Amino acid sequence: MPEAETDQDLSMLFRTLSIISTTAAVMMAGSALSAEIAVSPSARSGLTITVYNGDLALVRDTRRIEVPKGETDIAFGGVSAQMQPSTALLRSDMRGVTVREQVFDFDVIGQSSLLRAYVGREVTVVRINPASGEEIESRATVVSVDNGIVLEIDGRLTTEIPGRLVFDSRPESVRTQPTLVANLVAERDASGDASLSYLTSGLNWSADYVAELSTDGKTIDLSAWATVSNTTGVDYPEATLKLVAGDINRVGGGRKVMAMEMMQSDVRMAAMAPGVQEESLSAFHLYAIGRAVDLGDRQTKQLALLSAPGLGVEEDLFSRGDGMGVRTQITGRDRTENVTRALVFTNTEEEGAGVPLPAGTVRVYGQDSSGTPQLLGEDVLAHTPVGEEARLVLGRDFDVTVERRQDEFVRASDRITISAHTIEVRNAKATPVTVRLVEALQGDWEILEENSGHTRVDGAPEWRVTVPAGAAAELTYRVRVRF
Q: Which of 12, 87, 318, 417 suits 191 as a labelling partner, its CA being 20 to 30 A distant?
């Protein structure tokens, strides 16, 4: 071969190799630019969680990221499996970086997700020889998983797994944890903090109170614990935790809640448990825990919230009639019941409280003669602002009974009745008691006669009857009602 032709062929070969190398480099570069960058929880630089009543929380997860120039997918792993995707908001302090798209991938690795990813591909079926106990391996193709699993083994279809399945590798489409993937475009290489905020279910809190009644029954030592539960499917370590008390309107996908937290709040500090700060937030109250809190998945944690020792209380013994005796004749049908016992206190600083009390369950304890605590009853406390009265119903009083009798009934017209009644209160205690008697009278009523004066409370007549120890007392009244 002539030397000139050889040189020309070599030159063409070098140019071809150069083109191939350049093309490969471009392809590799493009692949690198489009590759996903994982941002694990270990890159976290801040975590704030605001938990609301009613299975809702706002998570703000800040992590340090590095973004190359061009288009990149950033994968935030370790986010809540119960995230509301429409509320996710990714913000960054890096200039020239734009978020174009967000995808929430919550289908984490498991048998069903692996089988879906392996449709049309082969897996290994491992069976045990019942005679020898040895493992027998065979290959099978996953045909379908839509209406139950269908495998093809040796050209035959089966709808049952004849052994355990072994997958050759983990598919790239299957995540090991719930992940939010954001598609970013950067004008230049950049690094900085990116904050992902989202609403999620699976985080809830409630207040649980313990009230210890003094031996004289005049004060209680009230303490409150915040019970926080996490069922999101992910751990939240070293979180800055805030708890919001109040009923929020969730219409509109929760964006109103996120905006509300960013509003300026009218801060008013209150005497809370050590490290806990309380402030008013719009129409709600917020309790900030002054230390980092670990919230593990499927974990319930109690945090000290407030303490009010020596809170003044009053005992309230009451009985409420149903008003049947003013609507129809029931003469001769006496009705007897035990009175209801409650403790009442006013949420003021003078009485020993004076801080907003979030709704929760209150368990009241007293001590027996040996000093052993005993449960006296429990009730649900509603959200109680400062200055409002709180009432804790403990149950029925064993020693105080009320008997209601109808003594007279006259139907004066189709819409008017006149009736007379006797209410006998019996006290088997060794001390006198005062019982509050309330009659649920509907319509336009007028007390015609009574042996003790009444007051009108919330549209109903109310009497207070004092009964000596081991004695009984009677209340009589005659009433006209227009329906």
A: 87
Nearest to 408 by CA among 332, 321, 337: 332
- Separation CA 342–CA 328 (nearest Å): 31
Unique residue bearing structure tokens 């708890």: 243
Amino acid at the residue 257: V
Predicted confidence (pLDDT) per residue in 214-252, tens digit: 999 999 999 999 999 999 999 999 999 999 998 777 655
How far is residue 296's CA from residue 80's CA, in Å, rounded to a whole number? Answer: 12
163: amino acid identity, one letter: G
Which pTM does this prediction carry? 0.72
* Enclosing H/E stretch for 7: helix 3-34
CA-wise closest residue to 94 among 52, 63, 117: 63
Instruction: Dump pLDDT digits (tens) for 395-414.
Output: 999 999 999 999 999 999 99
DSSP state of 383: P
Distance CA(70)–CA(98), nearest Å, equals 10
Q: How far apart are CA 163 and CA 160, in angstroms?
A: 9
Contact between 435 and 317 under an 8 Å Cβ cutoff? The reply is yes
162 alpha carbon, distance to own chain's centre: 43
